[in-house]
Amino acid sequence: MRHYLDFEKPISELEGKIEELRRMSEPDGLNIADEVARLSTAAERQLRSVYGKLTPWQKAQVARHPERPKAKDYIGALIAEFTPLAGDRAFGEDTAIIGGIGRFHGHSVVVLGTEKGSDTESRVKHNFGMARPEGYRKARRLIELAGRFRLPVISFVDTSGAFPGVDAEARGQAEAIARSIDACLAAPVPLVATIIGEGGSGGAIALAAGDRVLMLEHAIYSVISPEGCASILWRDPAQTATAAEALRLTADDLRRLKLVDEVVPEPMGGAQRDPQATIQLVDAAVWDALSPLLGMEPAMLRAQRREKFLDMGRDALA
Q1: Least reliable range by pLDDT among 6-20, 105-119, 253-267
Q2: What is the DSSP letter of 118?
Q3: pTM above 0.85, yes or no
C-alpha cells in the first residue's frame, strides 16, 4: 500500500476511489473503465498541481519518503559485479556507509553510499543512515584505495547527518569526517557524488566533496535539518517550515547558488512513485558527469576540484 504524505491527501482520496472501484468491478464484472479514466485524469492533474508548487518543507518530506530508492537500490541496479568491502581497519564495521568495487558502464569503479534502510529491521541495521567514525574512516580507506588503483569514485548520499552519540564523539567523529572530506578533495581520480534523498551536514559532505555533485529534484542538502534549525533559532518546532525556507536547501536553490552542478529530474510525484525510472535518470546523469573526467590527469583533477570549492567561498563573500 502506497504511503502518502500529509499534503498528498487530495491525491490519496482520488487514487483510493480508483482502487475501490477496481476491487468492486472484479467480482461483479462491472464496466467501470470510463469512471476510472475520469478519476485517473483528475488524480494526475492533482498530482501535477501539488508537485508543481512544493514548498521547501514539503520537499524535505518528499526527500525523506520511506519508499524512495535507497543507496542499495542504486548500487544494485547500476553497479555490475559489485563486491562489498567492509571495515575501517582500525575499529570495526559501520553499516550506515556501504561501499565496494564494481563496474559502471564497463569501467571499474569504487562506489560508496549512505544507506538508511527500507524497513524497520534494515533501518536499525544501518542506523538510519547516520554513520559513526568508523564509517567515515571506511569511506576514506576506499577513496584512497581508488586512488592507488586509479579507479573513479561514485557516491550516493542519503543521510540526515552523522551519528551524534557520545560513543561516536569519543571515537573522533569530527576528525573522521574531516579526513573523509580531505580524502575526497585529494583523490587523484574522478569523484561524482549524487544527493539522492537527504544531504545532512558534514555527514553528507564527507562523501560529496567531488568533481561533480548531482542532486535529485526533490532531494535536500543543508548544514542542518529544518527541525534542528527551528529548535536552535526559534526554540519552537512550529517554525520548521520557516526554517526550511531560510536554509535554501532545495535542489533549485543550490543549483542557483552554484553549490551543486546538476539537478536530476524525478518522475512526476517524486522518485518514490517510479523508482526504476528514477534510477535510470540517475544512471544517465552520473555517466554524463563522469565520462568527461575519465581521461584527466590527477594534478588537473585535484586543481579543478580545489578551485570548485574555493569558488563557493569566494561567491559567498562577494
Answers
A1: 6-20
A2: S
A3: yes
